[in-house]
Prior knowledge:
Elements: E1 5-11, H1 19-30, E2 36-41, H2 47-56, E3 63-69, E4 83-84, H3 86-91, E5 96-99, E6 105-108, H4 111-121, E7 130-133, H5 137-149, E8 154-158, H6 161-174, E9 178-182, E10 194-197, E11 217-220, H7 229-236, E12 240-242, H8 244-260, H9 267-278
Parallel strand pairs: 1-2, 1-3, 4-6, 7-8, 7-10, 8-9, 10-11, 11-12
Antiparallel strand pairs: 3-5, 5-6
Helix pairs in contact: 1-8, 1-9, 4-5, 4-8, 5-6, 8-9
Amino acid sequence: MREPRRAGVLGSPIAHSLSPVLHRAAYAELGLTGWRYDAFEVDEAALPGFLAGLRDGTGEPGSWAGLSLTMPLKRAVIPLLDEVSATASSVEAVNTVVFTADGRLTGDNTDIPGIAAALREHGVTSVESAVVLGAGATASSALAALARICAGEVTVYVRSAARAAEMREWGERLGVRVRTEDWGDAAKAFEAPLVIATTPAGATDGLAESVPERPGALFDVLYHPWPTALAAAWTARGGEVVGGLDLLVHQAVLQVERMTGRTPGPLAAMRAAGEAALGV
């Protein structure tokens, strides 16, 4: 590999991103002293020009290894790439772009295996059924991960008929049996052996009092503020809790491996850096 190499995270807004903290910690642990990882404020309108500049050398200077993508770019980037992995295609979302030696841009999705890896780390390797709270982009990635570990039905709690239809369609595409329920009945969700909350901050706070005496496992994809009211109630009842930082670190480890070619990625060092940045 040529030195120095560059990578970065694109999105809008981007100032809050922990990706630079995690990737820089990985480079330090791997001894990649010539590598840089920066954050760039890029929206959908600016994305084509930004990528074109990296391809032809008129944009940000450097020898590029890869990019991380956050909202709202995960779908907007797809037509701008030379190749997209089957994993990313399955949910029409790319969060990782790798620059190949011949200048091609290849897209992948590390959120899906990241969800599975975070669950596996907490001892959740298979379940008979599961619940997903919410119906956004993360919910479709959660369904894709559940396709690997859930033997039975996945119940998705949503706020609108349109969202319900979307999630049933994703289930058909991903080979997951999906049943949808109204968000107003979400308190019933917590009898499932695995609950994945994919909603924005505060959306599940009102459900915290509904956590049963002996809950199963909760995967709450938020990492700030942490713990969420739901995660705190779940922990108080003795249930297993997987947090958003677990997902963030596991998907970032996979990005580091793909961009640097070094395996295994330094999970412990990246987690420690993330915890220090969040003050947890």
